[in-house]
Design a protein that fits this description.
0% helix; 11 strands; 7-stranded mixed β-sheet; 4-stranded antiparallel β-sheet; mainly beta; 119 residues; single chain
Length: 119
């Protein structure tokens, strides 16, 4: 069974940095896309970044380009989201998700990790 476990959230000041981790288990992810989403209070969940596991090709939402970096560690089966120059509007619960290449639905989700940016 696929499990995704996020960690690394917390309280950070505006302009600071934070690194989120998503430990994946339960299967091989060579033909999958791992992604980070976020949901702020009262807002819809939105896409943040994604990475194709095998080719390491990355995708970003415009509002994080140049500030956030998604990466993966094959040996640890872990995906990271390095968040730099964070802003108060980055405050949200961040979720890790996975889908198979060629599909459009993210089938598995983590429990989320809270990120709070103070001004």
């Amino acid at each position: 069974q696929v499990q995704l476990v996020e960690s690394g959230g917390g309280l950070v000041q505006a302009g600071g940095s934070l690194r989120l981790s998503c430990a994946a288990s339960g299967r091989s992810f060579n033909r999958h896309i791992m992604a980070w989403f976020r949901q702020a209070p009262g807002k819809d969940r939105e896409f943040v970044a994604a990475i194709r596991w095998s080719e390491s090709i990355t995708y970003y939402a415009d509002f994080v380009k140049g500030r956030f970096t998604i990466s993966r560690d094959n040996a640890r089966n872990t995906v990271y989201l390095q968040m730099n120059v964070v802003k108060p509007e980055d405050t949200a619960v961040y979720y890790c998700a996975v889908r198979a290449s060629g599909t459009t639905t993210f089938d598995y989700w983590g429990q989320g990790t809270q990120v709070t940016v103070s001004s």
